[in-house]
Specification:
Length: about 325
């Protein structure tokens, strides 16, 4: 199977903007603010409010086919040794544009799933692509915050004062495990890698401060998640920078590679797993295809193929390479 270009699933958000257009995302000229582009997506419609939550192949013999169709028809060619996720692709990869603060939120860890059967485990990681001067991330709880303080502050502005604030800088990578209370701050654009889940429990949504329409909060479920991951919430989240291997989790591995002009994408260490490759700087090209910053290609398992079908750097280029993990452990 040849490398696959996918059309993203676009998600309008009250906190979003129009900066994703600068990353190659074709935003409709409808005046709406778009917070998310799901560049590799294959969710069950029953698990999300998005009406069509699966990427479709943009061109070639599988044009217009959903990822789930390819998994069903030729699972081994697309996934190799990687387990599927209930018959679907096992990763969700996004681009996010936070024009305003996102809601303060938390995702369910495995420990609470029995009590919340409709929830899906969600662990994610952020690669900061752009950050305005002074932009911040909210990651976990500040020092010496107590259970009672958090429980009493849920749903109120007081919750924000209990969070750990971390400056955001382009190039940094942050891991956001399930159960960590968090929010992207205004002025940040990130690439997000996550488990295939759309379960988000909102704890505070800046309605008065940002003149937003009210959205549902999930205070009881959110508290269950925070309490179950209390140690994670009280341990400072430290950014990763300057290493080729950025993240190695149970769910995915993330590498950053620098390629010289005309250098092909290296053959993988394990050619039995697919790779999601995102251009951070420079460009990739193969055949008639060209990708610039923000562009994403899904490379199926196996050797990358003959010369003309191997993605190659069109100039000095930096890419992010995401590989699904061997299983889906909690």
């Amino acid at each position: 199977m040849t490398p696959l270009l996918l059309d993203p699933v676009l998600v309008a958000k009250p906190w979003g903007g129009r900066r994703l257009a600068g990353l190659g995302v074709d935003l409709p000229a409808d005046g709406r603010t778009y917070g998310e582009a799901w560049v590799v997506a294959d969710l069950d419609p029953a698990d999300t409010v998005q009406p069509d939550p699966a990427s479709r192949v943009r061109s070639g013999p599988w044009a217009s086919r959903r990822l789930s169709d390819l998994v069903a028809e030729d699972r081994e060619s697309l996934l190799g040794d990687v387990p599927d996720h209930d018959g679907r692709f096992p990763l969700l990869v996004k681009l996010l544009d936070a024009r305003e603060h996102l809601s303060v939120q938390v995702h369910p860890p495995a420990a609470v799933l029995d009590d919340h059967p409709s929830a899906r485990l969600k662990t994610e990681s952020w690669v900061v692509l752009e950050a305005d001067p002074g932009a911040e991330l909210f990651l976990g709880l500040a020092d010496d915050v107590t259970h009672d303080q958090v429980r009493d502050a849920l749903g109120t502005p007081a919750l924000v004062d209990l969070l750990r604030r971390v400056p955001a800088h382009a190039g940094e990578v942050f891991h956001v495990p399930a159960g960590l209370v968090h929010a992207l701050g205004a002025g940040v654009v990130v690439a997000e890698v996550q488990t295939p889940s759309d379960t988000t429990w909102r704890l505070y949504d800046w309605v008065a401060e940002l003149d937003r329409p009210e959205r549902e909060l999930h205070l009881d479920a959110g508290w269950d998640a925070i309490a179950a991951a209390w140690e994670v919430n009280t341990t400072p989240v430290v950014p990763e920078t300057g290493r080729p291997r950025l993240l190695d989790t149970a769910h995915y591995v993330v590498d950053r590679l620098d390629l010289a002009t005309d250098q092909p994408l290296p053959e993988p260490d394990d050619d039995r797993r697919p790779r999601v490759v995102m251009v951070l700087e420079g460009g990739l090209g193969w055949g008639r295809e060209r990708l610039g910053p923000g562009g994403v290609v899904l490379v199926p398992p196996g050797p990358t193929g003959p010369h003309d079908s191997r993605p190659r750097a069109t100039t000095d280029t930096t890419v992010l390479v995401v590989v699904p993990g061997p299983g889906h452990r909690a």
